[in-house]
Amino acid sequence: MECNKIPEVILNSGHRMPLIAMGTVGDPLPPPEQLISIYIDAIAIGYRHFDTASIYDTEEPLGKAVAKALELGLINNRDELFITSKLWCTDAHHDLVLPALKETLRKLDLSYVDLYLIHWPIRVTKGSKYLESLNENILPFDINATWKGMEECCELGLAKSIGVSNFSCVKLKKILDQATIPPAVNQVELNISWQQEKLLEFCRANGVHISAWSPLGSHGSYWGSHKVLENPVLQNIASAKEKSVAQVFIYIYPFDAHKFVLEFVFKFLMYSSDWFKMDI
Ligand SMILES: NC(=O)c1ccc[n+]([C@@H]2O[C@H](COP(=O)([O-])OP(=O)(O)OC[C@H]3O[C@@H](n4cnc5c(N)ncnc54)[C@H](OP(=O)(O)O)[C@@H]3O)[C@@H](O)[C@H]2O)c1
After folding, report:
1. Whole-angstrom Cα distance, residue 31 to residue 40?
2. 119 has binding-site annotation
3. Quick check: 118 and 88 in contact, CB under 8 A?
4. Domain residues for 207?
5. Does 56 qualify as catalytic in the annotation?
6. Is residue 122 situated within a structural domain?
7. Which residue numbers delimit the NADP-dependent oxidoreductase domain (predicted)?
8. pTM for the full model?
9. Ligand 1: which atom is nearest the Cα of residue 265?
10. Is the N or C terminus of the chain more exposed, i.e. has fewer CB atoms within 10 Å?
11. Choosing from 39, 47, 56, 271, which is the catalytic residue?
12. Rounded to the nearest whole angstrom, what is the distance from the C-alpha of residue 80 to the centroid of ligand 1?
């Protein structure tokens, strides 16, 4: 099958990042064997960027899929992939960052991640998993000390680029004011009904790449909404052009300026060259 080249952005770290990633969050998740097979199929059809996190429970199956893709010759070496993972809130403390990344690398069976993000700007007690219960378990969070731990991961070559997720302008500025290595990425919820213009402006001005989670509004998940896929303007364009709303969305949004990464879970792996051919 012909592989489509996904556009890339050069991050402030100097590393290239494919602008479309396959997201790996899911609740409930399919069994590991099915996940491995989904990720292998994704590599076969052209995905090169995968977005995982220690809290998603997808690092191990993703690592197995990477190993299998190498074995099958779908990729020639690991460097052809871009793997993002994230530090969970229980480990958002200077001394815990490096051990957490080492555990992530053990699960992925890789020697480095391409991008390592602080998942949320909070620290919670060990064992806290679900966001709803985090409030009861909040601990003091030292942003700059945690960021120092992230920088150490980068200096050791265990993360090629480092960044944050779900950070506001104020919290990002705290890091930028003291960082030796500035965050390369801020991954935030961003879609047509949640456009985050002020944050975009701030990140643009400071060379921090914004990537979008839930670009389709996370249709179908308990944290999502129908506001994107049921947007009447997008629906009208989609029906006039005989395309899906998701295709219209991907077309009108970000490619011109390389502003965001769109992260799509293509459930049926429907990515084909036709996706990017549309005249609106
Ligand atoms: N950093 C963070 O805090 C954070 C938070 C959330 C997510 N993320 C990352 O971002 C990724 C994407 O976010 P998300 O999964 O929440 O939301 P999303 O990509 O906006 O929505 C995913 C859902 O959209 C539907 N969908 C996907 N492709 C479609 C298509 N071509 N046509 C119609 N519907 C389509 C599917 O719903 P159905 O299953 O109903 O078909 C799928 O489950 C995650 O997998 C994760 O890696 C990061």
Report:
1. 15
2. yes
3. no
4. 8-267
5. yes
6. yes
7. 31-221
8. 0.90
9. 27
10. N
11. 56
12. 24
